[in-house]
Write a structure and sequence with these properties.
With about 110 residues, the chain is mostly helical. It is elongated.
């Protein structure tokens, strides 16, 4: 049974690593999106940092309770109003997701 146990542990470790990576990518993407939105809204310094922290914490809390995939987009759309279209938000989200994946892969 040693070989089976080793394989099972390896699979569990791989799954745990993938879950952590997914969380890190999502969190980094959320921070980058919130910072981008803060800049558009003219927030700077501590005000911008507070906004980013608030958005990220709200998304993580919601992700843990509802698994609603568009929480971040809904929040930013509401905060930005007519300043940014839904298409632009979706496009930016895709770009930021790719950037976050690349950064996590590189270990940055």
């Amino acid at each position: 049974m040693g070989l089976f146990d080793d394989r099972e542990r390896a699979y569990e470790n791989l799954h745990a690593h993938e879950q952590e990576k997914t969380f890190l990518v999502s969190s980094l993407r959320s921070r980058m999106m919130a910072a981008w939105a803060a800049d558009i809204m003219g927030k700077t310094g501590q005000d911008a940092e507070d906004y980013v922290r608030q958005v990220v914490h709200a998304e993580i809390a919601d992700r843990n309770h509802t698994q609603h995939p568009n929480t971040l987009l809904d929040r930013l759309s509401e905060d930005l109003g007519a300043a940014i279209s839904a298409a632009t938000l979706n496009q930016k989200m895709a770009l930021m997701t790719k950037e976050a994946q690349d950064r996590i892969e590189r270990g940055n």
